[in-house]
Automatic annotation (TrEMBL):
Keywords in alphabetical order: Membrane, Transducer, Transmembrane, Transmembrane helix
Biased amino acid composition, Polar residues: 468-478
Protein known as: Methyl-accepting chemotaxis protein
SMART domains: HAMP, MA
GO cellular component, one term: membrane
Segments for region (Disordered): 460-490
């Protein structure tokens, strides 16, 4: 089916395109419209459920706050204060001990009860229990904790909250909270034992002098009012299930979906309840306790945050409705969108057939004429079109094209004749040029071989010139080094000569100093002889002096010894000086011979330096000549390379010319063949 639409007539294709475009747009537009409306409707459903839950929660808070206000008002009335004082005085008067029971059967109590009760009974009658949830009113002693009065004479009348069976009950808890805070207080629902049914207590203090708590005024409340707030659907017109859940996950109101009492019996442990008990608020789809998907709005009631209630607990406020019911408007919108889409699709098909017919008919007629022209019949006439749209313009353009085509075919026919004759002449000329180019190419090939041999010979000569120049440069370097070494040797020989001369002068001075030392030693020898003679004379004089000259004799003896030692040392030094003089003379002779030898070496070094300098000049000249030869060889090689390159380029150009000539010859032949084909092709058209 799809293949027929794609390959069929233009009519089918246009209809298919219109239908496909519409089919693609309708779902997209429908989906976007539906999605946008769906989001708004779903959000409206969420907001509506959220408003329902918030409305019920606010009504519940207002109910509790109103109850506190009623209790405050009653606690401050003279009737309540008087009743508390009267009952307190009655108990004080009748008790026989601290643990005495409160007598509720005496005639006196009955009389007091009859006078007190109308005030409180009228309040309860005014606030009917089914509409207010007020079950009973209590007066509890602030001193003894005894239930001194109940408006409905309940079973707990006269009970002692501190010592009796009600110790630990929710009523006792409320009583203790009021005494402790001296403010209104409230305790959660629990099964109250004397009545065996759920009860919630709210109480306010009855303050006396110095803010002393003379008593506690308590309201016992049932679930009736709470159930009317959270169980009714009259305000919404929908099957919304609204209920309260405590921290023990037990319900604090009656569920609309249950027949039996669910207060403090049915446990609700859903995700929404957990979130609300954690102080969170929100709205969304959740599973309820019956595992059904419901739209749920949840939040904490806020009892513990409400100013004036004195509650130490809070509840979760839940409002839920079946998801299908909540989103019924969304489903209805979906059905309407689908119906509208089908209607639009049908209209699109009808419009597609009409528009496709107006387009395809003139196109088919025009296609038949174009087919005749395509077969070569240029005599076929395009029908005149009166349309002002693109199809009319197309027909006019094709008609103009056919007329132009007739003129072009006529001109091409004339050109084909000229082309055929010109192609023959070109083929003949190209053949002659090809033969001439082949001979030129052969001659250039031989020239190229000769130039290549010349280039190789020049290259070998250049390499040899480079080798000679390199050796000459090395010889120049060697000669320069030899010249420098000879100069250094001559300089050093002269330095040695100077050192030898200086050494000879030093030895001469040393000889002169030796003679001076000999003269000094002769003086020392004379001095020693005189000292010896003086010592002998001193010894003689000491002998003459006798005993008094002994010390002088010792000194004379020591002087004589010193003179002898000086004579011996002088002799030893004289012998050393004699040896020194001999060595000095030998050194002087060696120095003179060394100076003569050095002078001869200096003369030889000067001669060698002059010879090496002459050799250096000759080698340097040879090196310059070798460099010039090398430079000439390099220039010659470059010139030959350029000539060789030029000849190679000419040879390549000639070869390319030969190849091009061959190609031109082939092209000329193909041109002649093409002229024949064009002639055959043009002959197919009838003009």
């Amino acid at each position: 089916m799809i293949r027929k639409l794609v390959t069929g007539s233009l009519m089918r294709k246009l209809v298919a395109c219109f239908v496909l475009v519409s089919a693609a747009q309708i779902p997209i537009v429908g989906y976007l419209s539906f999605d946008s409306a769906k989001t708004g409707l779903e959000q409206a459903a969420l907001n509506k459920l959220d408003s329902e839950r918030e409305l019920r929660k606010n009504e519940l808070l207002a109910y509790f706050l109103g109850t506190v206000q009623n209790l405050r008002f009653m606690a401050q009335t003279p009737a309540t204060r008087s009743a508390a004082e009267t009952l307190q005085s009655y108990h004080e008067y009748n008790k026989s001990g601290p643990d005495s029971a409160f007598d509720t059967n005496s005639e006196l109590f009955k009389q007091m009860y009859a006078s007190i009760n109308p005030f409180f009974k009228s309040f309860l009658e005014t606030h009917e229990v089914n509409s207010s949830g007020y079950d009973d009113i209590y007066l509890i002693s602030g001193t003894h904790g005894i239930v001194m009065f109940t408006a409905m004479r309940s079973k707990d009348l006269g009970a002692d909250l501190r010592r009796g069976d009600l110790k630990g009950s929710s009523l006792t808890k409320l009583y203790e909270m009021v005494l402790k805070t001296k403010k209104p207080s409230m305790v959660d629902f629990s099964i109250y034992a004397p009545l065996e049914k759920p009860a919630l207590f709210m109480g306010v203090p009855i303050l006396g002098e110095g803010d002393a708590v003379d008593g506690v005024l308590v309201m016992r409340m049932g679930p009736e009012k709470i159930n009317s707030i959270f169980g009714s659907t009259a305000a919404t017109g929908r099957s919304t299930d609204a209920y309260l859940v405590g921290h023990d996950f037990l319900m604090r109101s009656q569920s609309r979906s249950e027949q039996d009492s669910s207060m403090l019996r049915t446990k609700i442990n859903t995700e929404a309840v957990k979130n609300a008990l954690q102080g969170k608020s929100g709205t969304g789809l959740f599973q309820n306790s019956r595992n059904a998907t419901v739209l749920t709005s949840y939040s904490p009631v806020g009892l513990n945050d409400a100013k004036g209630l004195g509650a130490d607990f809070d509840w979760a406020a839940i409002a839920e409705i079946n998801a299908d019911e909540a989103f019924a408007s969304v489903q209805a919108l979906k059905d309407r969108v689908i119906l509208i889409a089908l209607i639009i699709a049908a209209l699109s098909v009808l419009v597609a057939f009409v528009i496709a017919g107006t387009i395809s008919k003139p196109v088919v007629a025009l296609a038949e004429k174009v087919a005749q022209i395509g077969e070569g019949d240029l005599t076929s006439e395009i029908p005149h079109q009166t349309r002002d749209d693109e199809l009319g313009a197309l027909a006019t353009a094709i008609d103009r094209m056919v007329r132009n085509l007739r003129e072009q075919i006529a001109r091409i026919t004339e050109g084909v004749v000229i082309l055929s004759s010109s192609a023959s002449e070109i083929s003949t000329t190209v053949a002659e040029v090809a033969a001439s180019s082949a001979q030129t190419s052969s001659a250039m090939t031989e020239t190229t071989v000769t130039v290549e041999e010349l280039r190789q010979a020049a290259q070998r000569a250049s390499e040899r010139a480079k080798s000679v120049a390199t050796n000459a440069q090395e010889s120049v370097k060697t000669s320069a080094a030899g010249k420098q070494a000879t100069d250094d040797t001559t300089q050093r020989m002269r330095h040695i000569k100077e050192q030898m001369t200086s050494m000879g002068q030093t030895v001469v001075r040393l000889s002169e100093h030796s003679r001076a030392i000999e003269e000094i030693m002769a003086s020392v020898q004379d001095l020693a002889d005189q000292s010896n003679l003086l010592a002998v004379n001193a010894s003689i004089e000491a002998a003459r002096a006798g005993e008094h000259g002994k010390g002088f004799a010792v000194v004379a003896h020591e002087i004589k010894n010193l003179a002898d030692q000086s004579r011996d040392a002088t002799g030893h030094v004289r012998s050393i000086l004699e040896e020194t003089r001999k060595w000095v003379n030998a050194v002087v002779m060696s120095a003179e011979e060394g100076i003569k030898a050095v002078e001869g070496g200096v003369r030889q070094s000067i001669l060698a330096g002059e010879s090496i300098e002459k050799l250096y000049a000759d080698v340097e000249g040879s090196a310059r000549a070798a460099n010039e030869i090398q430079l000439s060889s390099d220039q010659q090689s470059v010139a030959i390379d350029q000539v060789s390159g030029g000849i190679s380029s000419i040879d390549l150009a000639i070869r390319q010319n030969v190849s091009s000539t061959s190609q031109l010859e082939s092209a000329a032949k193909r041109l002649a063949d093409l002229g024949g084909q064009l002639k055959d092709l043009v002959e197919r058209y009838r003009i």
